[in-house]
Amino acid sequence: MKLDQNKALEAALKLLNKVGLEMLTMRLLASELGVQAPALYYHFASKRNLLDAMAEAIVAPAIAGLDPAQLDRVQIDDLARAYRQAMLSHRDGGVVVSGAYGATPSVLKLADGLLGKMLDSGLHQPDAVNAMFNLLYFIQGSVVEQQAFEQLWGSNAKSRAAAAQQLKRTVTVGYPHLEACLAELLCVDFDARFNQGLKAQSLTLKRQRRRSYERGPQSRTR
Known about the structure:
Structural class: mainly alpha
Strand content: under 5%
Order of helices and strands: HHHHHHHHHHHH
């Protein structure tokens, strides 16, 4: 039976959710598909190629239907939340997408949309590019942290309470600043942290826009 690339990719994502990235191998995927490894390598020359294809499949829902002509109706925060949710929808999705380093069409389309919004807001090119990377890194990092936490402790209230108690025991001796902020540290609410981080990113963008206007239009492209 001839192996279909889309079927192989679908199986890879299911296997990722089942065993995680560390245990996902080309040999295991071939076994799951009931084929020999060479049939899999015909479609994906290496595990890196497979992971890039998986990253594309993970991110694609975040930018589905994103029309550059309609970007003025899309808020940066909406794009950020969609990107985050796409990665969270798969086990180890943050690590898979981060490892692709933006080399997939969907990530490039998302980055282009974000960069366009930032340029249109009045940022100079260097500021806009840095702001885009800062936002993408923030989103990816927050997802990687959340998924690592949930794999270690779980995602329900009981497991989060156990993690909080472990943190409490760790920081109460020798870490005065952490101990002083213990109540806030023990609040394991990744949605709230993400929204707060987005707000901080927005404030940073506003300050950068002011600096761009103060420097004048010489290096703006729009």
